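User: I'm writing a tutorial on reading structure tokens. Could you give me a worked example: one chain, its sequence, then its tokens, then a sentence or two explaining what the tokens reveal?
Assistant: Sure. Here is the example chain.
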Amino acid sequence: MPDLLLELFSEEIPARMQAKAADDLRRMVTDKLVAEGLVYEGAKAFATPRRLALTVHGIPARQPDLKTERRGPKIGAADAAVQGFLKATGLTSLDEAKIQRDPKGDFYIALIEKPGRDAIDVLAEILPVIIRTFPWPKSMRWGARSGKPGSLSWVRPLHAITATFGPETEEPDIVKFSVDGIETGQTTYGHRFMAPAAISVRRFEDYEAKLKAAKVILDPQARKDIIFADAKELTFAQGFELVEDQVLLDEVSGLVEWPVVMMGSFEAEYLAIPDEVIRATIRNNQKCFVVKDPKTGKLTNKFVLTANIEAPDGGKTIVAGNERVIRPRLSDAKFFYETDLKTKLEDRLPKFAQIVFHEKLGTQAERIKRIERLAAEIAPLVGADVAKATRAAHLAKADLLTEVVGEFPEVQGLMGKYYALAQGEDASVAAACEEHYKPQGPADRVPTDPVSVAVALADKLDTLVGFWAIDEKPTGSKDPYALRRAALGVIRLITENGLRLSLMKMAASALAALSLKPADAQKLPSDLLAFFADRLKVQLREQGARHDLVDAVFALGGQDDLLMIVRRVEALGKFLESEDGKNLLAGIKRASNILGIEEKKDKRTFDGAPDAALYGLGEEKALAKAIGEVTAEASAAVAKEDFAAAMSAMAKLRPPVDAFFEKVRVNDDDAKVRENRLKLLNEIRSATRAVADFSKIQD
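And here are its predicted structure tokens:
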């Protein structure tokens, strides 16, 4: 079966756009092929700084013929309807139509046969549309004609389009079309400097091999592997160790077509700057990797760069050029750092009074005061020293006004720690300056120092309660204030540190520091608790737990101790994996379903204790006795927070519930007996609510 080779050759594509562009090209072409009835075997897309390429193999040579039936008007319908039917279907007369008998009458049916087209003609039709509608985040127009720019919007000027199609055993054909005056062909170009001549290509294997010979590595992953392996080997050979950086590796691989790894150096005096600042300076400005001493773990005065050319002098000029640029950048960073050290963190705080955090939530200074108060309240609950937690909350945001953080925002918090230590603050206070932002994502580390935990909880709860109070909640995919991340941070801080805290009490404390209408203050806790419940479901689902079990526990109401919720969910999950758990769930569901039907039929509930005098069967008496015993046992276990024991108690209900449904007819002819048995079913439902609302659990 034929294969397609498509290449869009242009000026340099920004590295950050390449991966998505390659994926978009693959998706758009293959979606169109499938929509046209051309089901392919496989597809793969590639990107280099100057090209997007796609290979699709196993495409049928032709579309399948299509036969469809189209229903027309009834026999005897108005002439206008008949003529419209003939025109729409291409029939010359009704003699060419079939008649279909139907209970509603006899209808004309047209059999429409649409012969398939050659796949190359379909490609020539769909590819220019894809190119013209390609979803670049940013694009430009160029190529003025008659004083007007060209009609094509592309990320950078497009120079050539290669499009070939054909089976492996034959010479492929060119898929002929043009876009904004650019005609398709089978000519591409190698490396801009080392092999700029035109290259004639036939199919993908030939194309990839000829590009490699022309100093272009087509596959982005292959370029990453080369850079990473060569960088590790180069640093190891000199007794150092590469500081790995996957994000930087992704970016650098999109800047070169023929990666050549080299090592440069800078003056040792700059090692007085914190390692993270050195790394940010070299990474952000020159896209270079930093190197550390494996013995000490500290950075050395070396860096690794990736060139896009094999230089005649072995790269000496390239290395010297990078060193020449990095040196003044490090000099600036050193100046910023030393300048920052001259001003104490607390001396920067008055400036926050002029910086608005949010127009409805006041200034940064007001926010810092709220976090201080809340951290002081939380500190005893998490085992933190109140004075240290208050001091840490007081200083935690101060580094936002420093020169280094102004230049490198990614080191906020971290620089606060360095500056706090430099001015003699307690180690826990300094650590909290960095760690109060954590965790910033599902893979980020969770602080364990009690002072850090107190300040981190205070910071996140102030954010959540504040934006909740002014009705700036997340909607759909929009979450401009990262409230989902803040809620997940609170959940992880509590559960991973094994903390016993009431969410609503902490939220109420945060709420008290804000000026709100009484109505808003009353609405906030339940609203916010539901949001935490949703976030907890996401968290537990990622850990392999069932989200419906979270619903079953939250449905009991008044549950805002996250650690206990998680433990209850874990115990419930283990119980439902057992045979007793599965069968008891089925019995409880059956009882709930019967109750629901009968309550709807009678328009009433069957609350209240059953009358023991109306028990006519041993199974009723046994179930009633078991319910009484289990309720007491399970409630006592829950009170001790022994959820495993509570589940074991629930398991004792299984035999009498099974026996009841096997031997007892609930809807007895005697109305009083029926009502009594329905009350007994309600007792089952009530008893199991000691541990969870089983009606929320999916089968």
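What the tokens reveal: The mean pLDDT is 91. The longest helix spans residues 316-341.
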